[in-house]
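Tutorial, part two.
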Amino acid sequence: MISSRISGALSAFACGAVVALVAIVSREDVFAAKTATVHTCAGADGTLHMTNAAVPCAPGERRVRIKVRIPEEKDCEEDSARLQKLESRLKDLEYRDRMGTLRAKRVHAPFEVVTKNNGRLMRIEEQNVTFYNQETKPVVWIEADSSGGLLQTQTASGDREAVIAAQGARSHLLIKEKDEDRVDLGRRANGFYSMQVYGPANKMVAGIGQSLAGSGILLIGDAAGNTKAKMSFDARLGTVMSVLNRAGTEVGTISALAGGGVLQLTDAAGRSMVEAGLTEANVGVVRTLPGKCHFGMGILGLVPNCVVGRP
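Running the prediction step on this input gives:
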């Protein structure tokens, strides 16, 4: 075995080797200088073998004297501790080698990864991976196909989940609760980006993003998903804020023209009834409709329907 061969060699090389060398030298050398001289004979090929000081070397060999330090007892203890740690590591490597955990293996999907108690940790199939929690409930999915990739996570109860996906023309982050969308942020199939917030029954109650014209737009809706307020940019009217009634009809707008701001209120049929703004001469005007603008002066009982400021 690996450990028995290495540990045996190391043990022989450590304290035991030096003690054996010291045993063949004189006692006077040992006690005088804490060192010992080892007598060896060197052959023509460079090999050394130990000998006694009184024994001559063989013909063709020459004597080589090596001075070594005599190890103290604490040195031997430290060496022994290191050897024990090394033996422990070698035994662990041999165990892992027997179990096959050190050798690389190629496994074909589908397959599962389990704990020592056969609890499911992960399942890998050809195009998706599923991860399980400590209760072996699936909580994470990774999917990869020809359209792109998807990462889905959920709580242990499955009530809430988050999805990050980049597939085809879409790339988005989706947060769901009890199988209903709550937040959807990303790129739509039409190429525009937006964030949508949903209320009950997957009804959008707020949204911000790009309009079909490519400019910014903000929508606010009621719990039923009906749009009640809108802010957008129009190339002709500039920035526009709109308010809608219960029926979804736009009944009030504020816009920013090149000359200034304009306020318009309409009836349920969409007809303009009140207008306020600035003329081209930068004069403020407020009028009620329908009818032409008149000030009620000189005509008995006629109520004025215009207020015009003076520059």
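Residues 1-33 have pLDDT under 50 and may be disordered. In part three we will examine how such features are distributed along the chain.
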